[in-house]
Amino acid sequence: MGELPEFSHTSLESLRQPLEDKMVTISRVSGTVTYPASFMMVSAMNPCLCCYFSDPKKKCTCSSSAVSRYQKRVSGPLLDRIDVFVEVPSVEYEKLVDEALAQNSSYARQRVEQVREIQRERFKDNGFLCNSEMGRRKSGNRALWTKAPRPCSKQQPNDLTSPPEHSTGF
User: Fold this and answer.
1) Which of 33, 47, 78, 107 has its CA at a distance of 20 to 30 angstroms from the CA of residue 86?
2) Does residue 107 share a domain with residue 23?
3) Does residue 149 sit within a domain?
4) What is the DSSP annotation of 85-125?
């Protein structure tokens, strides 16, 4: 989903329950039907309307309140259901088209297959393949510290589920 804040509030909010329950229910006058809806939502958004809020080379023309208003178009409860947030900085055109920096898609596929194999082995006795399928009870069993906790681990769990204020990527 490109430009996530540009979708209607109703459309975005209708994704909350299927993301959490992995089921979608359709109700009509003639009856109600529930279908499985396990999916991976991938979305993107600009940091603000002018696109330059966190750009190191170009100055943002939006006011602080405009940036905040734009980012709040995506509700907190929907953000709580998104597992990974990634800020992607702009890339210069020359680097984008430089074939020396390009990565072969077969290499990328190989890396994905390796990670999938690790996940298959990791969850072989659990009946699922992805972290998102673990649920809270199972994830508590898997989240063991192997090194000293990082400072952010002292935050309350709810603080870790929301992106930082003015986060620019999904």
Assistant:
1) 107
2) no
3) no
4) --------HHHHH-GGG---HHHHHHHHHHHHHHHHHHTTT
